[in-house]
Amino acid sequence: MTSKIEKPKSAKTRSRSSIGAVRSPQSTEAILDAAAAILEEHGYKAFTMDALVERAGSSKPTIYRWWRSKGALLRDVYERTALTFVTAPDTGDLERDLIVHLRSLWSWWRSSSAGETLRSLITEIQHDSTAIDEFREAFLPRRERTLRKIFARAVDSGQITEGAAVEVAVSMLTGMSWLHLVTANLENLDDIDKAVSVIVNGLKPR
Amino acid sequence: MTSKIEKPKSAKTRSRSSIGAVRSPQSTEAILDAAAAILEEHGYKAFTMDALVERAGSSKPTIYRWWRSKGALLRDVYERTALTFVTAPDTGDLERDLIVHLRSLWSWWRSSSAGETLRSLITEIQHDSTAIDEFREAFLPRRERTLRKIFARAVDSGQITEGAAVEVAVSMLTGMSWLHLVTANLENLDDIDKAVSVIVNGLKPR
Amino acid sequence: MTSKIEKPKSAKTRSRSSIGAVRSPQSTEAILDAAAAILEEHGYKAFTMDALVERAGSSKPTIYRWWRSKGALLRDVYERTALTFVTAPDTGDLERDLIVHLRSLWSWWRSSSAGETLRSLITEIQHDSTAIDEFREAFLPRRERTLRKIFARAVDSGQITEGAAVEVAVSMLTGMSWLHLVTANLENLDDIDKAVSVIVNGLKPR
Amino acid sequence: MTSKIEKPKSAKTRSRSSIGAVRSPQSTEAILDAAAAILEEHGYKAFTMDALVERAGSSKPTIYRWWRSKGALLRDVYERTALTFVTAPDTGDLERDLIVHLRSLWSWWRSSSAGETLRSLITEIQHDSTAIDEFREAFLPRRERTLRKIFARAVDSGQITEGAAVEVAVSMLTGMSWLHLVTANLENLDDIDKAVSVIVNGLKPR
DNA sequence: TATTAACCGAGACGGTACGTCACGTCTTATT
DNA sequence: AATAAGACGTGACGTACCGTCTCGGTTAATA
Fold first, then answer.
1. Per mean pLDDT, which range of A7-21, A173-187, C69-83, D12-26 is the poorest?
2. What distance, in Å, lies between the first and last C-alpha atoms of chain D?
3. What pLDDT score was predicted for residue A23?
4. Is the CB of B165 less than 8 angstroms away from the CB of A197?
């Protein structure tokens, strides 16, 4: 799932560059690229399988052979672009690290296809309860990993005590972020600072 | 939108007791009731306009005459049932009030159609950006009102200082709740206690 | 069903000029006028009961109180305008009379709402077999009356023999006219002359 | 559009034996068969796209992929069954040939789905002026072809003179037939004999 | 003169059918 | 064996128009 590939030509001009008995990496990349592009340019509403096929120059059977559903595809789209985003600052200051990370996250959501992709993914999984389970058990923890790492370092450095309510702190920061995402309200980055301040202050013993 | 009416009979036996040049309250109630019932019994997936028409003994034109979209209808369904839920405790203790309120909320979501309705509503508005705007500006503030009221009382009684970051505290508690809602994770009510503890502690000056 | 009335003002400005315990002639006329106007200006496709109500400034119950169906209304629309068209020439020459009558008829169909009205009526009755029966037994004979009269005079004057196949002659001329009407093919009036020539020639004994 | 295929099994038992990147002949045939069957058994009123889909075991998108409208479908239904009806007698006698052909036609209309189909088609095209044009320019000439052929043979054999008003004769016989069709008046086959007699007599020079 | 009954415009209602959209499956021909 | 192409059945959508019914009001004939 590296992104070190040449951009696929537009659907119609690109010839069948790879066919045969093994999975075509070009095709896979073309599909993921097209998905991200559609989401970024036209949003979730326009992200249909037909539009995807058209833009990727692929076909529906190919897509469904490798992804069991639209949600599974969206998950991969998000995770692939997430590889390019690893803002896990380590300044030694918990509050600062959280702020930098969350501000980067919100900005990245807004400035790329990532926000639209995650928003679409959350929407999509609501149709299927097993998808929700997989999402909660596997996808969500991966999203919260950076926050957890930051808190873990703060525990190590003694900024907060071991056993503090880190889990709910992560949940509240993630929840607030997602709430702003699904309500198209990612402008006020200053809210992040205030929230982080409350959380960090709240985790410290009195 | 009072709910002090007798339940409409099942779709087929209900006769046209009062329709005409004014909006029929029976029809309105039948539609909202049917919507809530479908969501509770069969979930969002089964909540189609056709199923709603069938169960309410109504018609699609009638529904679309009064609600511009499925999202608008879901909003009314939620707000109507929300009238029956007003757990705004006032014990004089901020932490206790928040815990009681949020525990009641999560329980209510799980034990009635309300959780499924809100989950569906969040999903539905993602298809339409104007719906998201209306949701963020009007619906969401109404949902956060009780939390704000609780915090306001705490300010009045001096438990927390004026000007504290109440807004982000509300946002974090709401966000965490919704995150658990959309990931089908409303079981661990103890998380509420921990979160509230962090928030209340965090709002107090050191 | 006289047309000696002032034109109704446009729907919205016309006040309730006649209401009470007897049928309102103004309302009746307004409905028939509006129907003809819609058909002439926008055609059968636009001739809906809602459009009619809007244009006539009337209401659906009023229309359905006096006409059992759209077809019945169209029949009255046609018959009312037909009162203004009675080209029954009597030159003493059968062939000439037929030509003048049919040319007038085709021209009248094209230059007024009449053609569109009849076309609509034929279409409309196809939905209801009792309407077809009434149409065949009562409406159609009234339409063929002038042709029959012309033939009857020719019999009287000895141009054709009694007992000649007048009925089928009428049927063929009517059928050809309607065929051209429903296929939007009323331009070539010269076809009339040729047809009449064949018919008149064919009715004379060899 | 050959009909040399085995009848498709009933909707539910028919398996998808051959679909894919090319148009499925089974599906096409099933649709046309179902259309004819509905028209024959229940008439134009019951001929809805939903009923057709149900009976053919097909789907609306498939139907609209191949036929732009109900009228276009009805045209194909009629033309397909018309392939089974080619009564173009050649006895050497114009009058006899015309009578045999028209009697066969009226009987065929009454005893099969054909009459109802044509009646429905005439009705249907009235909703769309481009459909009328196509109907007049292409469909109608095909229907009149047999009559023209009979007249052409009569010209060749010298029964009527070249340049006689064959076109209007065809138009009158077709018009009379259609007039009887749309007024549900196909019982009196003797009218055909009289009409043909007038026409044939009328075409001969005095 | 007051009452009553029929009619009026307005418009909401349940119902039927429409034509479109997107989905996920399946077949075909190609490489 | 994997691919692009694309037709297929399924199911839901939102709209158009129908004919019925209720509503509040007006007027003409009746009591």
1. A7-21
2. 46
3. 66
4. yes
The nearest alpha carbon in chain A to B138 belongs to A183
Cβ atoms of residues B105 and B181 within 8 Å? no
**Interface mutation target, options A140, A161, A171, A191, chain B, most CBs of B under 10 Å:** A171
pLDDT of A15 > 90? The answer is: no
Closest Cα in chain C to D131: C183
Q: Which residues of B touch A179 (CB under 8 A)?
A: 171, 174-175, 178-179
Entry field: residues in chain A: 206
Say yes or no for a CB contact (<8 Å) between B202 and A206. Answer: no
Question: In CATH, which superfamily holds the domain spanning A86-203?
Answer: Tetracycline Repressor, domain 2 (1.10.357.10)
- Give the closest of C136, C168, C199 to D185, CB-based: C136
Which CATH number does the domain C25-66 belong to among 3.20.20.70, 1.10.10.60, 3.20.20.20, 3.40.630.30? 1.10.10.60
pTM: 0.88
Contact call for residues A176 and A102 (beta carbons, < 8 A): no
3-state secondary structure of D8: coil
pLDDT given for residue D1 in this prediction? 35
Q: How far is D130 from chain C (nearest CA, A)?
A: 10
Q: Are C197 and C95 in contact (CB under 8 A)?
A: yes
- Spatial distance between the Cα atoms of C157 and A202, rounded to a whole number of angstroms: 116
**Distance of alpha carbon C115 from the chain centroid:** 7
Q: Which residue has the tokens 């002639």?
A: C25
CA dist., res. D98 & res. B120, Å (int): 69
CB contact under 8 A, B201 and A206: yes
Q: What is the pLDDT of residues A17-70, one digit of tens each?
A: 444 456 667 778 999 999 999 999 999 999 999 999 999 999 999 999 999 999
Predicted confidence (pLDDT) at residue B26 exceeds the cutoff of 70? yes
Q: Choose among B123, B179, B195: nearest Cβ to A178.
A: B179
pLDDT at C165: 94
Mark yes or no for CB contact A194/B168 under 8 Å: yes
- The reported pLDDT for the residue numbered D87 is 77
Q: CA Rg, chain B, in Å?
A: 19
